[in-house]
Protein backbone atom coordinates (compact mmCIF):
# COMPACT_ATOMS: atom_id res chain seq x y z
CA UNK A 1 0.00 0.00 0.00
CA UNK A 2 1.24 3.50 -0.83
CA UNK A 3 2.59 4.84 2.47
CA UNK A 4 1.73 8.43 1.62
CA UNK A 5 -1.86 7.43 0.99
CA UNK A 6 -2.01 5.51 4.25
CA UNK A 7 -0.55 8.35 6.28
CA UNK A 8 -3.16 10.65 4.78
CA UNK A 9 -5.85 8.11 5.68
CA UNK A 10 -4.63 7.86 9.29
CA UNK A 11 -4.55 11.65 9.54
CA UNK A 12 -8.12 11.73 8.23
CA UNK A 13 -9.30 9.26 10.86
CA UNK A 14 -7.73 11.35 13.60
CA UNK A 15 -9.20 14.53 12.13
CA UNK A 16 -12.67 13.00 11.88
CA UNK A 17 -12.54 11.78 15.46
CA UNK A 18 -11.20 15.11 16.64
CA UNK A 19 -13.87 17.07 14.79
CA UNK A 20 -16.52 14.80 16.26
CA UNK A 21 -15.26 15.49 19.77
CA UNK A 22 -13.62 12.09 20.14
CA UNK A 23 -10.06 13.34 20.53
CA UNK A 24 -8.37 13.61 23.90
CA UNK A 25 -8.90 16.81 25.85
CA UNK A 26 -5.25 17.83 25.83
CA UNK A 27 -3.78 16.18 22.72
CA UNK A 28 -4.92 15.76 19.12
CA UNK A 29 -5.26 11.99 19.44
CA UNK A 30 -8.04 9.44 19.65
CA UNK A 31 -6.24 7.78 22.55
CA UNK A 32 -6.40 9.02 26.13
CA UNK A 33 -3.98 7.38 28.55
CA UNK A 34 -4.20 7.67 32.32
CA UNK A 35 -0.64 6.42 32.89
CA UNK A 36 0.74 3.39 34.64
CA UNK A 37 -1.26 0.29 33.84
CA UNK A 38 -4.44 2.19 33.00
CA UNK A 39 -5.90 1.28 29.58
CA UNK A 40 -6.34 3.64 26.69
CA UNK A 41 -9.84 4.99 26.16
CA UNK A 42 -11.52 5.95 22.90
CA UNK A 43 -14.04 8.72 23.43
CA UNK A 44 -17.19 8.44 21.33
CA UNK A 45 -19.61 11.29 22.15
CA UNK A 46 -22.47 9.54 20.37
CA UNK A 47 -21.74 6.19 21.99
CA UNK A 48 -20.64 2.91 20.40
CA UNK A 49 -22.52 0.17 18.57
CA UNK A 50 -21.61 -3.42 17.74
CA UNK A 51 -21.96 -4.03 14.00
CA UNK A 52 -21.52 -7.81 13.97
CA UNK A 53 -24.27 -10.38 13.79
CA UNK A 54 -24.53 -12.83 16.69
CA UNK A 55 -22.25 -15.81 16.02
CA UNK A 56 -23.99 -19.19 16.21
CA UNK A 57 -24.71 -22.24 14.06
CA UNK A 58 -27.54 -20.42 12.30
CA UNK A 59 -25.47 -17.57 10.86
CA UNK A 60 -25.37 -16.94 7.15
CA UNK A 61 -22.55 -18.76 5.34
CA UNK A 62 -21.71 -18.44 1.67
CA UNK A 63 -23.10 -21.55 -0.06
CA UNK A 64 -20.44 -24.26 -0.17
CA UNK A 65 -18.30 -22.76 2.61
CA UNK A 66 -17.67 -24.87 5.74
CA UNK A 67 -20.57 -25.05 8.13
CA UNK A 68 -20.26 -23.66 11.65
CA UNK A 69 -20.34 -26.20 14.46
CA UNK A 70 -20.34 -25.16 18.12
CA UNK A 71 -20.16 -27.86 20.78
CA UNK A 72 -19.93 -27.46 24.52
CA UNK A 73 -16.72 -29.27 25.46
CA UNK A 74 -16.59 -28.48 29.19
CA UNK A 75 -19.13 -27.04 31.62
CA UNK A 76 -18.79 -25.21 34.91
CA UNK A 77 -21.10 -27.71 36.58
CA UNK A 78 -19.04 -30.74 35.57
CA UNK A 79 -15.54 -29.36 35.03
CA UNK A 80 -15.34 -26.06 36.99
CA UNK A 81 -14.92 -24.13 33.72
CA UNK A 82 -16.69 -23.70 30.39
CA UNK A 83 -15.06 -24.17 26.97
CA UNK A 84 -16.71 -24.33 23.54
CA UNK A 85 -15.34 -26.35 20.61
CA UNK A 86 -15.89 -24.22 17.50
CA UNK A 87 -15.40 -25.22 13.86
CA UNK A 88 -15.82 -22.52 11.23
CA UNK A 89 -14.62 -21.27 7.87
CA UNK A 90 -12.59 -18.09 7.75
CA UNK A 91 -15.42 -16.15 6.05
CA UNK A 92 -18.33 -17.07 8.32
CA UNK A 93 -20.93 -14.47 9.27
CA UNK A 94 -19.80 -10.88 9.66
CA UNK A 95 -16.20 -10.93 8.46
CA UNK A 96 -13.38 -8.99 6.86
CA UNK A 97 -11.87 -10.00 3.51
CA UNK A 98 -8.14 -9.42 3.02
CA UNK A 99 -6.55 -9.09 -0.45
CA UNK A 100 -5.37 -12.72 -0.31
CA UNK A 101 -9.01 -13.83 -0.55
CA UNK A 102 -9.03 -13.17 -4.33
CA UNK A 103 -5.52 -12.02 -5.21
CA UNK A 104 -2.63 -14.46 -5.63
CA UNK A 105 0.26 -13.04 -3.62
CA UNK A 106 -2.01 -10.50 -1.92
CA UNK A 107 -1.65 -9.61 1.73
CA UNK A 108 -3.25 -11.84 4.32
CA UNK A 109 -5.26 -10.79 7.34
CA UNK A 110 -2.12 -11.22 9.47
CA UNK A 111 -0.22 -8.74 7.27
CA UNK A 112 -2.52 -5.82 8.03
CA UNK A 113 -1.27 -3.25 10.53
CA UNK A 114 -3.42 -2.22 13.49
CA UNK A 115 -4.28 1.14 11.91
CA UNK A 116 -5.64 -0.65 8.84
CA UNK A 117 -8.60 -1.92 10.87
CA UNK A 118 -9.87 1.62 11.60
CA UNK A 119 -11.64 3.87 9.08
CA UNK A 120 -13.85 6.91 8.80
CA UNK A 121 -17.21 5.51 7.74
CA UNK A 122 -19.18 6.68 4.73
CA UNK A 123 -22.63 5.08 4.59
CA UNK A 124 -24.71 4.93 1.44
CA UNK A 125 -28.30 4.02 2.23
CA UNK A 126 -29.62 2.66 -1.07
CA UNK A 127 -32.77 0.98 0.22
CA UNK A 128 -35.63 1.64 -2.17
CA UNK A 129 -33.28 2.84 -4.90
CA UNK A 130 -32.95 0.98 -8.19
CA UNK A 131 -29.88 0.63 -10.37
CA UNK A 132 -29.37 -1.00 -13.74
CA UNK A 133 -28.36 -4.63 -13.14
CA UNK A 134 -28.39 -3.74 -9.41
CA UNK A 135 -24.98 -2.07 -9.90
CA UNK A 136 -24.10 1.27 -8.32
CA UNK A 137 -22.00 3.28 -10.76
CA UNK A 138 -19.71 6.31 -10.47
CA UNK A 139 -22.55 8.66 -11.43
CA UNK A 140 -24.68 7.28 -8.59
CA UNK A 141 -21.87 7.85 -6.07
CA UNK A 142 -21.35 11.42 -7.28
CA UNK A 143 -25.09 12.08 -6.99
CA UNK A 144 -25.13 10.70 -3.45
CA UNK A 145 -22.14 12.90 -2.54
CA UNK A 146 -23.90 16.01 -3.85
CA UNK A 147 -26.72 15.36 -1.39
CA UNK A 148 -24.79 13.95 1.59
CA UNK A 149 -21.20 15.20 1.32
CA UNK A 150 -17.98 13.96 -0.21
CA UNK A 151 -16.26 10.69 0.70
CA UNK A 152 -13.16 11.35 2.84
CA UNK A 153 -9.77 9.78 2.03
CA UNK A 154 -9.19 6.54 3.94
CA UNK A 155 -12.92 5.83 4.24
CA UNK A 156 -14.66 2.50 4.42
CA UNK A 157 -17.67 3.03 2.13
CA UNK A 158 -20.51 0.81 3.33
CA UNK A 159 -23.86 0.02 1.73
CA UNK A 160 -27.13 -0.31 3.58
CA UNK A 161 -29.21 -2.35 1.15
CA UNK A 162 -31.82 -3.88 3.45
CA UNK A 163 -30.19 -7.31 3.35
CA UNK A 164 -29.58 -7.33 7.10
CA UNK A 165 -33.11 -8.43 7.88
CA UNK A 166 -32.57 -11.64 5.88
CA UNK A 167 -29.37 -12.67 7.69
CA UNK A 168 -29.41 -16.07 9.36
CA UNK A 169 -29.88 -19.52 7.89
CA UNK A 170 -33.25 -21.09 8.42
CA UNK A 171 -31.56 -24.46 8.03
CA UNK A 172 -28.15 -25.75 7.01
CA UNK A 173 -27.58 -28.87 4.94
CA UNK A 174 -24.03 -30.21 5.27
CA UNK A 175 -22.42 -32.62 2.82
CA UNK A 176 -19.96 -35.39 3.68
CA UNK A 177 -17.01 -32.98 3.36
CA UNK A 178 -18.47 -30.58 5.91
CA UNK A 179 -19.49 -27.96 3.36
CA UNK A 180 -22.74 -26.12 3.95
CA UNK A 181 -25.64 -25.20 1.73
CA UNK A 182 -27.92 -22.74 3.46
CA UNK A 183 -31.63 -22.31 3.16
CA UNK A 184 -31.01 -18.63 3.66
CA UNK A 185 -33.00 -15.70 2.31
CA UNK A 186 -30.02 -13.33 2.28
CA UNK A 187 -28.70 -15.04 -0.84
CA UNK A 188 -32.05 -14.59 -2.58
CA UNK A 189 -32.32 -10.89 -1.74
CA UNK A 190 -31.67 -8.79 -4.85
CA UNK A 191 -29.33 -6.34 -3.18
CA UNK A 192 -27.61 -3.47 -4.92
CA UNK A 193 -23.83 -3.50 -5.02
CA UNK A 194 -20.93 -1.58 -6.51
CA UNK A 195 -19.72 -2.14 -10.03
CA UNK A 196 -16.01 -2.76 -10.39
CA UNK A 197 -15.66 0.56 -12.20
CA UNK A 198 -17.34 2.41 -9.33
CA UNK A 199 -14.98 0.84 -6.81
CA UNK A 200 -11.97 1.76 -8.95
CA UNK A 201 -13.26 5.34 -9.14
CA UNK A 202 -13.41 5.49 -5.33
CA UNK A 203 -9.87 4.15 -4.96
CA UNK A 204 -8.48 6.47 -7.63
CA UNK A 205 -10.43 9.66 -6.94
CA UNK A 206 -11.57 9.35 -3.31
CA UNK A 207 -8.59 7.33 -2.01
CA UNK A 208 -10.75 4.96 0.00
CA UNK A 209 -9.38 2.01 1.97
CA UNK A 210 -12.24 -0.42 1.43
CA UNK A 211 -15.93 -1.12 1.05
CA UNK A 212 -18.59 -2.99 2.97
CA UNK A 213 -22.23 -3.97 2.97
CA UNK A 214 -25.04 -5.42 5.05
CA UNK A 215 -25.32 -8.00 2.26
CA UNK A 216 -22.94 -10.94 1.95
CA UNK A 217 -20.42 -8.79 0.13
CA UNK A 218 -20.36 -5.39 -1.63
CA UNK A 219 -21.23 -7.03 -4.98
CA UNK A 220 -24.57 -6.69 -6.72
CA UNK A 221 -26.98 -9.61 -6.68
CA UNK A 222 -26.30 -11.69 -9.77
CA UNK A 223 -22.74 -10.45 -10.27
CA UNK A 224 -20.99 -13.80 -10.65
CA UNK A 225 -17.65 -12.06 -11.19
CA UNK A 226 -17.80 -10.44 -7.73
CA UNK A 227 -16.58 -7.26 -9.39
CA UNK A 228 -16.72 -5.00 -6.32
CA UNK A 229 -14.89 -7.45 -4.07
CA UNK A 230 -12.28 -8.32 -6.69
CA UNK A 231 -11.55 -4.68 -7.52
CA UNK A 232 -11.31 -3.78 -3.83
CA UNK A 233 -8.85 -6.55 -3.04
CA UNK A 234 -6.86 -5.91 -6.22
CA UNK A 235 -6.32 -2.38 -4.90
CA UNK A 236 -4.96 -3.82 -1.63
CA UNK A 237 -8.15 -2.78 0.12
CA UNK A 238 -10.44 -4.70 2.44
CA UNK A 239 -14.12 -5.67 2.31
CA UNK A 240 -16.33 -5.81 5.41
CA UNK A 241 -19.13 -8.32 4.85
CA UNK A 242 -22.58 -8.83 6.40
CA UNK A 243 -22.57 -5.76 8.63
CA UNK A 244 -25.33 -5.46 11.23
CA UNK A 245 -26.97 -2.41 12.82
CA UNK A 246 -26.09 0.02 10.03
CA UNK A 247 -29.12 2.05 11.06
CA UNK A 248 -26.90 3.34 13.90
CA UNK A 249 -24.17 4.63 11.56
CA UNK A 250 -24.33 8.16 10.18
CA UNK A 251 -23.41 9.01 6.61
CA UNK A 252 -20.02 10.55 7.43
CA UNK A 253 -19.66 11.36 11.12
CA UNK A 254 -18.62 7.98 12.56
CA UNK A 255 -15.63 5.68 12.65
CA UNK A 256 -15.68 1.89 12.21
CA UNK A 257 -13.13 -0.42 13.84
CA UNK A 258 -13.04 -4.10 12.81
CA UNK A 259 -9.92 -5.98 13.98
CA UNK A 260 -9.79 -9.74 13.54
CA UNK A 261 -7.77 -12.66 14.79
CA UNK A 262 -4.35 -12.57 13.06
CA UNK A 263 -4.89 -15.84 11.22
CA UNK A 264 -1.52 -16.89 9.76
CA UNK A 265 -1.60 -16.51 5.98
CA UNK A 266 -5.35 -15.99 6.28
CA UNK A 267 -7.63 -14.65 3.56
CA UNK A 268 -10.02 -13.16 6.12
CA UNK A 269 -11.72 -13.82 9.43
CA UNK A 270 -14.91 -13.23 11.37
CA UNK A 271 -15.15 -9.94 13.24
CA UNK A 272 -17.50 -7.98 15.47
CA UNK A 273 -17.00 -4.42 14.18
CA UNK A 274 -17.51 -1.43 16.46
CA UNK A 275 -18.95 1.89 15.36
CA UNK A 276 -17.65 4.91 17.25
CA UNK A 277 -20.30 7.60 16.90
CA UNK A 278 -19.53 11.30 16.71
CA UNK A 279 -21.51 14.02 18.41
CA UNK A 280 -24.88 15.08 17.08
CA UNK A 281 -26.04 11.52 16.57
What does this entry look like structurally?
By secondary structure, this protein is an alpha/beta fold. The chain has one domain (47-277): 3-Layer(bba) Sandwich (Glucose Oxidase, domain 1). The chain contains 5 helices and 15 strands. The chain is globular and about 60 Å long.
On the 0-100 scale, what is the average pLDDT?
87
**Approximately how much helix is present in the residues?**
10-25%
Q: What's the structural domain tally?
A: 1
Low-confidence stretches: 18-34
- Which CATH architecture? 3-Layer(bba) Sandwich
Q: In one word, what is the shape? A: globular
Q: What is the CATH C level class, in words?
A: Alpha Beta
Number of helices: 5
CATH superfamily: Putative cyclase
Q: What is the rounded Rg?
A: 19 Å
Distance between the termini: 33 Å
* Biggest beta sheet attributes: 9 strands, mixed
Category from helices, strands and their pairing:
alpha/beta
CATH fold node name: Glucose Oxidase, domain 1
| DSSP strand content | 15-25%
How many beta-strand runs?
Answer: 15
Amino acid sequence: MNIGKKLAAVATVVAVLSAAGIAGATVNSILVRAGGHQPGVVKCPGGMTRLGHEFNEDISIFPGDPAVHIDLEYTVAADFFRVEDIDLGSHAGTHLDAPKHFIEGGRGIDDLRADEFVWPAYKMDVRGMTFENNMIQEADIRAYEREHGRIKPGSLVVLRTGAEEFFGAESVVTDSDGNADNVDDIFDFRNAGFSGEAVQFMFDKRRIDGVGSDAYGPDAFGDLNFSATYTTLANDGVALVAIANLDSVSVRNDVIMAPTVALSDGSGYSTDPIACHGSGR
